């Protein structure tokens, strides 16, 4: 790590010296790494640094190495920096504090509180009901906190699979019916009356757990932005449950999410209307991510019977609307011809 970056960390934390510790994670497509720095003579024993270095040639596991992909990633780190510097949450949806950030040329640095030190030192590759509910509670409180808040400086539409940012993956799809309906699904999600700020990448791997599993904090806000809260919910559930579990457990877990959401939202919100709209959006949000996977990685394990069934339901719902739209268009044309 460059001396100027080390000096930034020392100054921000009031430490006398530092030692580079473990490499926690390599960033997606070789765009840098996340490392832990151990500090001396300050009230923080360590911090976590997200060190972004834009590579000359990216290494994408799916082969999606394009200028568009690179531009999207660069923007994602700019958004994440803006998020940490300008937004704050509550204890009910804990995130790490941002201690410092800088950018120079093709490098960016974000210095964050070490969540391990704060008691969120457990990571999970599989979860029980307690951990799932803890994450859903985090999402509910996060969505409630930012309900109706404009996503200033963030992605106008959050999530990394947003249709407008993924034309290459859409073009690669073999499912002609879903490809044709992708724009309508995106439009319906974007026209929600109740919008919030979504995490945008709320998979299990981005949650840090307390020892008991009852408390969680979230990291990785590269794709935070505006949208319907169901986008985070479906992505999280799909990240930690296989198809049979989804079929069995999703209804009850969705009920729990809405119970937590209603406890957290402000008094002046029409709770019944909010729940009604977002429940209706659940299948659309799931199908929207399914659309992305079909183009991005057709053999992905998340492309399963449960996802396909929800997609069928959405496409069936869209057909009457499409026919009605066609009839309206014809009627408008007849009027215009007169």
Automatic annotation (TrEMBL):
PANTHER family: PROTEIN KINASE-LIKE DOMAIN-CONTAINING. Residues 110-267 form the CHK kinase-like domain. This is Protein kinase-like domain containing. Pfam families: EcKL. InterPro entries: CHK_kinase-like (IPR015897), EcKL (IPR004119), Kinase-like_dom_sf (IPR011009).
């Amino acid at each position: 790590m460059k001396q100027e970056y080390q000096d930034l960390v020392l100054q921000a934390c009031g430490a006398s010296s530092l030692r580079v510790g473990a490499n926690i994670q390599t960033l997606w497509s070789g765009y840098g790494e996340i490392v832990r720095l151990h500090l001396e003579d300050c009230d923080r024993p360590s911090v976590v640094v997200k060190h972004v270095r834009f590579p000359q040639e990216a290494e994408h596991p799916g082969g999606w190495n394009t200028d568009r992909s690179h531009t999207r990633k660069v923007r994602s780190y700019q958004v994440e920096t803006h998020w940490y510097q300008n937004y704050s949450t509550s204890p009910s949806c804990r995130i790490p504090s941002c201690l410092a950030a800088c950018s120079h040329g093709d490098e960016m640095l974000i210095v964050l509180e070490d969540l391990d030190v704060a008691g969120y030192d457990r990571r999970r590759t599989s979860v029980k009901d307690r951990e799932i509910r803890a994450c859903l509670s985090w999402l509910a409180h996060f969505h409630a906190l930012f309900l109706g808040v404009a996503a200033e400086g963030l992605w106008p539409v959050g999530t990394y699979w947003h249709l407008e940012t993924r034309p290459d993956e859409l073009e690669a799809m073999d499912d002609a019916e879903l490809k044709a309906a992708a724009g309508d699904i995106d439009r319906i999600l974007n026209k929600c009356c109740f919008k919030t700020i979504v995490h945008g990448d709320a998979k299990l791997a981005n949650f840090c757990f307390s020892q008991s599993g009852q408390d969680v904090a979230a990291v990785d806000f590269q794709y935070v932005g505006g949208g319907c809260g169901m986008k985070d919910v479906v992505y999280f559930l799909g990240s930690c449950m296989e198809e049979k579990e989804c079929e069995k457990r999703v209804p009850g877990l969705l009920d729990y999410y809405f119970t937590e959401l209603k406890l957290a939202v402000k008094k002046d919100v029409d709770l019944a209307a909010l729940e009604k709209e977002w429940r209706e959006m659940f299948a659309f949000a799931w199908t929207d991510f399914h659309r992305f996977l079909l183009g991005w990685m057709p053999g992905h394990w998340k492309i399963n019977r449960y996802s396909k069934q929800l997609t069928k339901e959405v496409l069936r719902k869209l057909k009457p609307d499409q026919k009605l739209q066609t009839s309206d268009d014809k009627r408008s044309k007849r009027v215009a011809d007169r």
